Amino acid sequence: MLTWAGEPVRSGVRLAVDPGTVRIGVARSDPDGVLATPLTVVKRGKGDLAALAALAAAEQAMEILVGLPRSLSGREGAAAVTARQFAVALATRVAPLPVRLFDERFTTSTAHESLRAAGHDSRARRQTVDAAAAAVLLEAALESERRTGDAPGQLVSPRPGTGR
Q1: Which of 63, 74, 125, 149 has the fewest C-beta atoms under 10 angstroms from its C-beta?
Q2: Are 97 and 56 in contact (CB under 8 A)?
Q3: Prediction pTM value
Q4: Which of 25, 57, 55, 18 is nearest to 42 (CA)?
Q5: Cβ distance 62 to 12 under 8 Å?
Q6: Average pLDDT of the segment spanning 1-5
Q7: What's the pLDDT band for 26 if we cut at 50, 70, 90?
């Protein structure tokens, strides 16, 4: 277990997923939980949970973080309801691997800004922004854990019969 600013940081690879309506961005951390990097994009729809479960197994993930979209005021709308449903289905699919919901405000806009600053045009950004947004989400979750010493976000309980 590493310590950062005096707080413990759990060791192990984490995956973060940013579920959109068309694509799911995926990022991974290093085993020390220090760095987050974009990993891939999974097509949303039939087979997406199986693909994410396979990625989690291949990366030997210790947990998966799912982005929870909230408004600037912190309220949850229809997109948050969909993200919660997705997280429950994913948790059911990958159990007993923990799945956690983590606030994703600003992740996509931050990812677009970073890619634009790196010189990617708008067409190139469309192909990579989902995975980059997942990396921004994961960086925020890792920072939260370093700051508090607690696992980030809200643990999702799997429910039988909800997986795709």
Answers
A1: 74
A2: yes
A3: 0.82
A4: 25
A5: yes
A6: 48
A7: very high
**How far apart, in whole angstroms, are the C-alpha atoms of residue 85 and residue 91?**
10
What are the structure tokens assigned to 132, written together? Answer: 């980059």
Distances (CA, A) of 33 to 14, 46, 63, 86: 7, 31, 11, 24
Residue 135: partners with Cβ closer than 8 Å, 6 or more residues away: 16, 25, 27, 36, 37, 38, 111
> Which residue in the block uniquely carries the two structure tokens 């067409």?
123
Long-range Cβ pairs for the range 120-126 (8 Å, 24+)? none
Start-to-end C-alpha separation, the chain: 35
Q: What pLDDT was estimated at residue 162?
A: 44
